[in-house]
Amino acid sequence: MPADQPSRVRMPSPPPPSARQTPDFGATDLDAAQAWARLDAALDAAAATGRSVDLWWRDDDAVAPNPALDRLLDLAAETAVPIALAIIPAHTGDELAAALDRRAGDGAETTALVHGWRHHNHAPDDAKQTEIGDHRPLDTVAAELVAGRERLAALFGPRALPVMVPPWNRIGASVMAALPDLGFIGVSGFGAEGAAPAPLVEANVQLDPIAWHDDRRYVGDARLLDDLVAEIAKGHGRPIGLMTHHWAHDDALWACLARLAGVIAAHPAARWRPAGAVFAGGPAAASAA
Ligand SMILES: [Zn+2]
Question: Selecting from 2.60.40.1120, 2.30.30.60, 3.20.20.370, 3.30.70.20, what CATH number does the domain 36-286 have?
Answer without folding.
Answer: 3.20.20.370
